[in-house]
Amino acid sequence: MDQNPHYPNLLKPLDLGFTQLKNRVLMGSMHTGLEEEKGGYDKMAAYFAERAKGGVALMVTGGISPNFRGRLAPNSSQLSNRWQVKKHQIITDAVHKEGGKIALQILHGGRYSYHPLNCGPSAVKAPITPFTPKALSKRGIKTTIKHYIRCAKLAQKANYDGVEVMGSEGYLINQFICARTNHRTDEWGGEYENRIRFPIEIVKQMREAVGENFIIIYRLSMLDLVENGSTWEEVVQLAKSIEQAGATIINTGIGWHEARIPTITTSVPRAAYTWVTQKLKEHVSVPLITTNRINVPEVAEDILSRGDADMVSMARPFLADPHFVAKAAEGRSKDINICIGCNQACLDHVFKQQRATCLVNPRACYETELVASPATEVKNLAVVGAGPAGMAFALEASQRGHKVTLFEQSQELGGQFNIAKQIPGKEEFEGMLQYYIHQLEQSSVDIKLNTKADIESLSNGFDEVILASGVTPRIPKIDGIDHEKVLTYIDVIKHHKPVGKKVAVIGAGGIGFDVCEYLTHEGESNTLHRDNWLKEWGVDKEYKHRGGLLLKTEVDPSPRNVTMYQRKETKMGKGLGKTTGWIHRATLKHKKVKMVTGAQYERIDDFGLHVTVDGETQVKDYDNIILCTGQLSLRELQSDLEQKNIKVHLIGGADVAAELDAKRAIRQGTELALAI
Q1: Does the pLDDT at position 140 exceed 70?
Q2: Contact 322/288 with Cβ under 8 angstroms?
Q3: Buried b vs exposed e over 53-69: b needs ≥16 C-beta within 10 Å?
Q4: Core-most of 205, 331, 477, 526, by most CB within 10 Å?
């Protein structure tokens, strides 16, 4: 077979002996919440089929428990009975119809399970759940192994092409492996050989039960990133044992869920952890998959061409764009909708028991609901504002056949994206912006930059007007707010006004945290320099210490002394993302940002900021005071248009100006465009 001229290594088939994968791309496991929804299996069938159609070689489902006690939550999915097979066949039939392959992930939560019936090797409570697990008896361990095997056989009966045994991220198998959670003194604990008996028995007995012609992926924790985690020598020993037990492929797992080191969020450098997979390659002969923060085909191709791995796993990039592989094969990487690693609509949703989707692609997991169809009545539409909401609407509406004119008063597309992309650790927003710009340039949308829409231009032949005009900073009523020391976040990030060495930031929402990030970094952020980033977060690339942790971190000092204030007495950053808020707080802690809650702002004058905290009024002499105190919607055209009986729609910041919310903006724009 001829090599693909665009990405020859990425798109090269992988021969597994009894079957062949058509390229080197695995769609990694993601729980979507559809697993528990009524009618969810039909929706999952559409979701996976779309990605099979998009060219991915092999997909892995979200985690499915082998028994009740292993469920992550009381209502989570399990596969343990023959009657459940039929539901899963809906998925496998749909995937195979599109020429794809799919494996079921078997995941037992162990002490991470969020219910009182959870269990583990020992009664050691996890810091992320309120329930202390019951230590499994010897009989309970053997029964649990049987349940893994039963689950694999049922998956085979449901026509899955294989299973992935989840042995990493701190779930049950990982809990057996590590002494931090395995305090047993019997044959399932103590010495390392005893602690790894559990995963080895699972894979060995599973291979005997399913035969040779069935894919068994073992997800191996190659880097625990927790204290008293595995050593490198132990990781190698387990990998060799798992290969010998019968695994077809070994996948890379990075970090336990309780680890205090980021592994998949936006600020993690691309391909930050592929070095650990490469380190294992010389020790095993089965194919190795590498993972984490691989989101463009160029990075994936580079990983494979260097020989760091035999396959790459990308999970959330397939939420962002189900046709990632097909577009790469056609040399259309600019047309790939890029995953920015934000977690806002995927992981944050799942942890709040909501259905997962994607900030940049609201259709993800809504394939049967957000369906585009040609417009029955072609309309002439004006869109005011080319931020996230305006661009999303303009693209979707034009693709349906509407005539769309996009007005933007500045000289560039993107709106708030142009601010976000400048924040250290949010460089991925540039890629998302470039995707939108490229799509709009290829579209039929009439783009008018440097053009302020007015009532006259909008009254000229447009059937409906979409106001996506965004927001303006909210200025609080503080005596002296117009002092020359006072700047808004727009002044600082967009207009690059000079900022002194001693700074107060008023407001501790997402924008306040972003501004603090901006002010405490100098030059390129470590997100663009992997080895520096690993040192900053304490990751031991030499792997000399347990869990892959350095004994001390190396943090670049902040060029400024920054204090962040908020009126509320609640924890700073309470409104930040559920799975990423701790990262933002930790980053600012690294930079020694002082955080003050319960602040009452009295006035600002030549002496500085007069602020009352805990009943005591203080005068703080700051070079600058930066306002991050919320936003107001820009709707100045709405009433004039309505008086002329022109139908007006509000989307994005023009509709709700709470925090800057690209997820809501893009979804609103998409939904309106599909309905109009």
Answers
A1: yes
A2: no
A3: bbbbbbbbbbbbbbbeb
A4: 526
Residue 661's pLDDT is what? 86
Q: Are residues 594 and 661 in the same domain?
A: no
Q: Kindly state the greatest CA–CA separation across the chain.
A: 82
Q: Which residues are registered as beta bridge partners of 192?
A: none
Structure confidence by residue, pLDDT tens digits, 650-668:
999 999 887 668 999 999 9
Query: To which H or E segment does residue 620 belong?
Result: strand 616-620
pLDDT attached to residue 659: 64
Residues 314 and 400 both lie in one domain: no
Cβ 364 vs Cβ 34: under 8 Å: no
How much is the mean pLDDT over the chain? 96
Q: Which residue, among 291, 572, 297, 268, has the nearest Cα to 426 in the 3D structure? A: 268
Domain containing residue 608 = 475-521+558-629
Domain check: are 330 and 427 in the same one?
no
Whether the Cβ atoms of residue 80 and residue 67 lie closer than 8 Å to each other: yes
Exposed / middle / buried, residue 528 (Cβ in 10 Å: 0-12, 13-18, 19+): middle
Classify residue 546: in a domain, yes or no. no
Q: Are 18 and 100 in a shared domain? A: yes
CA atoms within 13 A on the CB side of 20: 7
> Which of the residues 171, 436, 543, 601 is marked catalytic?
171
In this structure, are 311 and 427 located in the same domain? no
219 band by pLDDT with thresholds 50, 70 and 90: very high
For residue 669, give the CATH number of its domain.
3.40.50.720
Q: What is the CA radius of gyration of the chain?
A: 26
The per-residue pLDDT for range 433-457, each reduced to its tens digit, is 999 999 999 999 999 999 999 999 9
pLDDT for residue 460: 85
Where residue 579 sits, what CATH number does that domain have? 3.50.50.60
pTM of the model: 0.95
Q: Is 7 a catalytic residue?
A: no
Please check whether residues 486 and 456 belong to one and the same domain.
no
CATH number for the domain harbouring residue 45:
3.20.20.70
pLDDT above 90 (res 176): yes
The closest of 650, 649, 609, 613 to 633, measured between CA atoms, is 650
Residues 596 and 641 in one domain: no
Would you say residue 539 lies in a domain? Answer: no
Domain count along the chain: 3
Q: What is the pLDDT of residues 44-58, one digit of tens each?
A: 999 999 999 999 999
Mean pLDDT of 349-364: 95
Domain presence at residue 550: no
Same domain, 316 and 432: no
Alpha helices for 354-404 (secondary structure H): 388-399
DSSP secondary structure code for residue 337 in this structure:
P
